[in-house]
Amino acid sequence: MPPKKTDVGVKEDKGGKPATTFVANAAKPASVSPNKTNAEEPPTWFHEEFAKGFDKIQSLLDRKLNSLATSVETLISDNRALGLRVKEIEGKQADHTESLDFLHNDLGDHKKKTEEEISDLKDKLDDLDNRARRQNLRLSTERGKPSHH
């Protein structure tokens, strides 16, 4: 099938100046008036307004995303700092636990020694008390009365 013939032309207004460009297809005759544009392509003012709206949306999104990115970076930084502090505290806690275990064992040893010393001192006290009572009582060979000193 041969290609369809397309005619391109310019209509002139009353003063002889070009008013509108038109394209005519052999299959579809185009009747374009000076006030209408080709339906397939939006007018220039639409492109300009669309670009302005798109730029506004883009700048709004950029501001919001920049703000959000800054907030996320701050959160990440704070989270890292907290992580370091937690590790430091965990290390100190492990040291303190180790110290407490040592002190607990040491205290148990001292308690046993103290209980042994108290038991020994009680035994000595009982012995001294018994010896003191023996020295207070004197038996005499005389008849009659015992003497006490």
Account of the 3D structure:
It is a single chain. The protein has 149 residues and is mainly alpha-helical. The protein is 62% helix and 10% strand. The chain has one helix at residues 44-136, and strands at 6-12, 18-25. A hairpin with a 5-residue loop joins strand 1 (6-12) and strand 2 (18-25). Residues 1-16, 140-149 have a biased composition (Basic and acidic residues). Residues 1-20, 95-115, 129-149 are annotated as: Disordered.
Secondary structure: elements and pairs:
Blueprint lengths: L5 E7 L5 E8 L18 H93 L13
Antiparallel strand pairs: 1-2
**Biggest sheet layout:** 2 strands, antiparallel
* Total beta strand runs: 2
**Could you give the order of the helices and strands?**
EEH
**β-strand amount:** 5-15%
Mean pLDDT across residues: 78
Enumerate how many helices there are, as a single number: 1
Question: In angstroms, what separates the terminal alpha carbons?
Answer: 156 Å
Oligomeric form of this entry?
A: single chain
Please identify the structural class as seen in this structure.
mainly alpha
Order the strands across the largest sheet as they lie in space.
1-2
Rg over CA atoms: 56 Å
The global form is rod-shaped
The share of residues in helices is 55-70%
Q: Spans of 5+ residues with little confidence (pLDDT < 50)?
A: 5-10, 20-34
